[in-house]
Amino acid sequence: ALTEQASGAYDGLGLEVLQQPDRSLLVIAPIDDTPAARAGIKPGDIIVKIDGKAIDADNVDAAVESMRGKPGSPITLTVQRESSADPIDFTLMRETIRVSSVRARGLDPGYAYLRISTFQADTGSEVQRKLGALQGQGDKALKGLVLDLRSNPGGLLNAAVEVADAFLDEGVIVSTKGRLNYANAEFKARRGDLLQGAPIVILSDSGTASAAEVLAGALRDHKRALVMGT
After folding, report:
1. From the CB of residue 201, how many other CB atoms can be counted at a distance below 10 Å?
2. Going by C-beta distance under 8 Å and a sequence separation of 6 or more, which residues neighbour residue 215?
3. Which neighbouring-strand residues pair with 183?
4. Could you tell me if residue 182 is left (phi over 0), alpha (psi between -120 and 50 degrees) or otherwise beta?
5. What is the bridge-based pairing of β-strands 111-116 and 102-106?
6. Which residues of the chain have pLDDT under 50?
7. What are the tens digits of pLDDT across the range 68-107?
8. Are 5 and 99 in contact (CB under 8 A)?
9. Contact, 79 vs 87, CB < 8 A?
10. 74, 90, 99, 193: least surrounded by Cβ within 10 Å?
11. φ and ψ of 218, to 5 deg
């Protein structure tokens, strides 16, 4: 589970499901470009069988786990859809699912919204790629950024350092100190601010923790961002 969180990848179908009070499995959404999405499974579908075996209160946890498995292995889901009188069977092939920790979109012209839900191995590069796509060239330079870190529980410290470095030209991002020499480290920003000094507002709440606090604290302490929230 720790490796999955850090890498943002797992082997399965690409489904977000919710266990309902009656222990049935409701599809919240298929993740884009995954076996579930390509097969045509839709939000609101209820998974009633897996490989022909009915899901009930006694086996629902095992059923959820069984949707994961070796890439290339087949699985058949039977779903009940509101628009269909009869259950529908979908046969899918499991594959490695990559979940992005970064979402970005434009707000008013010149302003961007960037959501980081956790810090994975590729979060730093994803921030640069998605902001670069929004920023474009020349007169499309961003005038400001809303950085949403609400309910971000943290993750890999080096990924948070990479993101902080993307918005800072210099200064210490974070340092660690311990009783043994190997625990002592200092991470400094290198020249190069993606936004060229454009203002940043960070949204935080009581769930903004660990590496997310490191990022918020570094940008605030260097007067690079204003932190709004708890």
Report:
1. 14
2. 116, 149, 160, 163, 164, 202
3. none
4. alpha
5. antiparallel
6. 138
7. 999 999 999 999 999 999 999 999 999 999 888 999 999 9
8. no
9. yes
10. 74
11. -65, -45
